[in-house]
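Researcher: Can you fold this with thymidine-5'-diphosphate in place?
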Amino acid sequence: MSRGRFITLEGMDGAGKTTHLEWLRQRLSVRALPLIVTREPGGTALGEALRKLLLDSHEPRQPDTEALLMFAARREHIATVIAPALAAGKWVLCDRFTDATYAYQAGGSGMAWERVAALESWVQGELQPDLTLYFDLEPELGRARTRQARVPDRFEREQLEFYERVRAAYLRRAREHPERIRIIDAARTIAEIQLELEKTLLIY
Ligand code: TYD
């Protein structure tokens, strides 16, 4: 049996990631592909508990601590959900993964890039997504879109400069891994973006 495909979605809050994830799930289901949809932080009982802790707390924290918790959840997620699914030939669609730790904890919060790299190699070994769809949007536009949408979590309340740094880190990751990370211009209409996603998926 051939290994399944591992696809991750990334982007600033407000870039439309959730809408496109749902659409991708439907497109892949139409192709009758065995598929699981999961998210980070989360995806396991431990991961969901850590997610609640990380996103609901108002306490300031060291970015290193946040990253260690993200990677603890990720280790469990990979070992018990992602790797077994891929080995069984399933496709895995994951809402955020390690690029988010580079973007938020390193880019946004100033954690050393190399420390994230060390944790990445320790926790993931050779495992990398086959494709990462990065929904790129100017932070100001993203904030304008999310403000009315719902009550912001702890991360979403951070300032605009934080999001500028997050975006710069995502773009750096995309530059460093052009074969894996596809930059999707999220300022366009949903229809235009879906057309691009459809074309991208055809080659997978
Ligand atoms: P997300 O799943 O997009 O939640 P929502 O749809 O409620 O916005 O992301 C949750 C938050 O977690 C987001 O602000 C980014 C943050 N995050 C990190 O800071 N580091 C990480 O490694 C991950 C996976 C997420």
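Model: Folded with thymidine-5'-diphosphate in place. The helical segments are 17-30, 45-56, 63-87, 98-108, 113-124, 139-149, 160-176, 190-202.
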